[in-house]
Amino acid sequence: MRVSKLTAILHIVSSTVGYEGSMINGIQSLEQWNSYFQPTTSSTALINATYWLGAIISYPFTQFIGDRWGRKRVIYVGAVISVIATVLQAAAQNVPMFVVSRILFGFSAILSGNSASVLVAESVHPRDRNVLTASYNSNYYIGAILAAWTTFGTGAIASSWSWRIPSLLQGVCAAINVMFLPFVPESPRWLVAKGRVDEAAHVLADAHANGDLDDPLVGAELLEIKGNIRLLKNDNPWRDIYSSSSNRKRLFILIFLGFSLNWSGNGLVSYYLSKVLAAVGITSQDEQTLINGILSITSWLTCIVASWSAGRIGRRTQFLSSSLVMLASFTAVTISNSVVAREPENKHAAVSVIFFIFLFMSGYNWAFNPLAYSYPPEILPYNLRLIGQSTILFACTIAGFFNTYVNPIGLANIGWRYYIVYIAWLATEVVVIYFTFPETLGYSLEEISPLLEDDGFITKLRKKHIVEKNKVVVRGPA
């Protein structure tokens, strides 16, 4: 079976994370959950922040396990931990028990998500890489949609099962991973790095040449991978990530992108949508969960279109257009909120807030969702991929941890004025992306790496993108 088909199993990892994010948003809108735990502003922040704490703790383990024992084992361990966390959350009797489950979910999400995205990038056919890597994180919204509509439906249950059922269903995707991961091939690049060249050849043949070991594409790819890994064999990835000018540029891009994934204003919508809606007079449980459900669907549809566009329009174009749409729409959200604050009965302003929230999330999902996991492996050499992917997720989790504490406090104290902070960050994003993010469209993973070693790599790749704007390199048969 082709690896590109088996990536569907790996994409479920992203759905697991999406379910968790939307579910916690949904159950915090439920009266039953609020009456059971009676959360204060600080305890709500604690519950949300501990997810990111678990993610931070997982950071050093991801690269160590993934490079030593393989990408698949990391994903498997993460899936098992997620199942354990599901049981704890569904059975939670108090806030501390709920918090422990959240820490475990955060730990498992980074452990599995980091390695799954790298495994997809390292395994798929060069022709399919743009779409399959970009669509990986788009599956976040499949989980988000399931969670949003589950909480909308269970909201009618009068008992604590209104939030325990969504919590219990959280483990379904992880359980699927546990069952089907044995059928997913290991990364051919990891196999070559461990001296298992014959196994790598079979994986490449199955994935890229319909099982034909004698196909010229298989031999060419294997030779390219072996040469690249041989050059990096004695390198220390922890030292190399900051030792050269080109790697420091990579590191800057990764850290900035990681913070942007949570500091673009989406953190307010993802974890505090109920508070954002309440601020404009939408306080009904049914209305809030309904909006959450519809928002998940529109976000997913945007991701699908964005993923299929990734191999045609280029990464820089997607990032820049995404940031500009977010900047414009979040500014409109801020202005509309200021009107509602002065005129609470102004329904037009309240509707405007909802409209621009939908537009903002569409802008975010045009680039920052599909490219969050596909872009980093493209600009990193083999020996830095797991560390680099861990770095971007570490920056993302630090930003998320900060957000979950600061957002509710900022909203409670200065209301709509707090949104101005995100407007400033979004403006910064546009400038940084324009001047530092290289284009990677049209290159194999091994071809990108040496180009980035040139101090003029951003200019070089930008010029190539202009010359070959619509050209995609296709190698061999599927």
TrEMBL record:
Pfam families referenced in this protein's UniProt entry, alphabetically: Sugar_tr
Transmembrane segments: 42-62, 74-92, 98-120, 140-161, 167-184, 251-273, 293-311, 349-367, 387-406, 418-437
Location in the cell: Membrane
GO cellular component: membrane
Residues covered by the Major facilitator superfamily (MFS) profile domain: 6-441
Membrane topology, as annotated: Multi-pass membrane protein
UniProt keyword Protein biosynthesis, yes or no: no
GO molecular function, a single term: carbohydrate:proton symporter activity
Primary location class: membrane
Keywords: Membrane, Transmembrane, Transmembrane helix, Transport
Coiled coil: none
Listed InterPro entries: MFS_dom (IPR020846), MFS_sugar_transport-like (IPR005828), MFS_Sugar_Transporters (IPR050360), MFS_trans_sf (IPR036259)
Family: Belongs to the major facilitator superfamily. Sugar transporter (TC 2.A.1.1) family.
Name of the featured protein: Major facilitator superfamily (MFS) profile domain-containing protein
